[in-house]
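Morning, I've got a small favour to ask if you have a moment. I've been staring at a protein lately and its backbone has me curious. You're getting the sequence in one-letter code plus the fold written as tokens. I've dropped the whole record in just underneath, so have a look:
=====
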Amino acid sequence: MALTEHDNVEEHASETSPLLGNGDGKVTPDGESGQGGDTDNTGDSRGENDAPLAEEPSTGKLLIVMSSIWFGTFLAALDATIIATLSAPISTSFNSLSLLSWLASAYFIANAALQPLSGRLTDILSRRTGLIFSNIFFAAGNLICGLATSEWVMIFGRIVAGMGGGGLTAISTFVGSDLVPLRRRGVWQGFGNICFGVGAGLGGVFGGWINDTWGWRKAFLIQVPFIVISGIMVSFTVNIPVKYSSKSALKRIDFLGAATLITTLVLLLVGLNSGGNVVPWNHPLIYTTLSLSFIFLLLFIYIESKLASEPVIPVKLLLNRTVLAACLTNWFLTMCVFSLLFYGPIYFQVKGLSPTQAGVRLIPQSIGTAIGSVSTGLIMRWTGKYYILNICIQIVFTAAYALLSSFTLMTPAWEPVLAMLMSGIGYSGMLTTTLLALISAVDHKDQAVITSASYAFRSTGSAIGITIASAVFQNILKIRLWAVLGDREGAADVIGRLRDSLDEIKTLPVEWRGEVREVYMEALRGVFLTTLGIGIVGGLVSLAMREHVLHRNLERK
């Protein structure tokens, strides 16, 4: 389905053009201009330096295009969580339990490192090319995993699959912004979030079922033909014009910026994922990776602001008040949600539920995600505004974590259901409103790269959130366990085992178990109070966003 191109249209000055301005002649609603403020993108003049507009498709054609892309998004989300139930059998088959944590981390790190690059790369090479290559990497990664002969080959396969899966997820958002006017953008993003949420929710169940039926290898191999179908679908349905340039595509790619950004994120995430899991926090690996990550971040900022002609992420855009506020809101609230996803099940297991039953208790979070995504999109379509809606969403999100912070071992079953539901509504609503704030605050040509930046904030936020939650949980648990059990025989060994596994509670004398469960509850309350504080900070930061016009057409007129 070809879409009309509007590329290579010259922009000329006229007698009505401003002699001085911020580069595109636009000012903020309250009269501010420059990078530090927000531009009110009421028009979108095209030039060689601008991305051409696609022709706005009919609803039917749009549904065909987006469905073909969302199919890949669904598969990527499913693959991201499939490892939850496959880690143990995979590690056992390779006799390498010490590498178990890297099966998930390898995918996550590759995903996080490549997503921020996908915006600029697909601006240059085209969305279709990006989607096709993402499907190729995704299929190859799963094929490698299914045929792996060692744990290192398995981890390499997860890295390759993570690169492809990250591209599929990010590029689907770019295409939606290319084809859907801002006024309707939230609704379509809501549907995309549902596809991702359903895939993520089914991943663990699917993996467990395939493993029990045919073995863990088939869980990866069975995905390959469906990924091939996804690649074929997007090759026929996605055809969005790219910016004309006299330079070759390879010369336009900011390889130095891309390399430093990948290095920054990989070093940061390796350090955060290793600390407390693979090696102690005072291990030289942690100091080295985090220090080098900071150095490469400074180098990346210098390259993007001083050297790159088409930077991977234009640093100057982060000086835009709405852009920075939206990215930081993503950062803080993602910390909260990932902390809940990791420590919510522990709360249910402390109450006596099995891991499977604890996992089922997270379903309201997925239901809330679906409700929040679509309802937020519909409200923005009806009103054309997002600022007041964002405040309401932040209140719902904060209330969810305030409720979580009040939990005890005697909390009735309906309260966690409500808290999970509210968390899902608040988080998905935040993702939708901040996406619209981001892309409405910048010119059309920058919407993909700034969306990529939000993915970078999200991926680092998830890792930092889990790290903070783990530190709080383990510190409180250690202090309180020593206070309760320190004077008993074999305390050091018992406390060490309790800090590593919840199952150790069952091995304790009956008279100890109640006290230990209360200690676990105190540690969990510390985690939930911490996430409440982070959520409040995120909500306050979101107030810095400004209201921008959500136009009814792609030309933003």
In short: Residues 447-485 form the longest helix (39 residues). The chain has 18 helices and no strands.
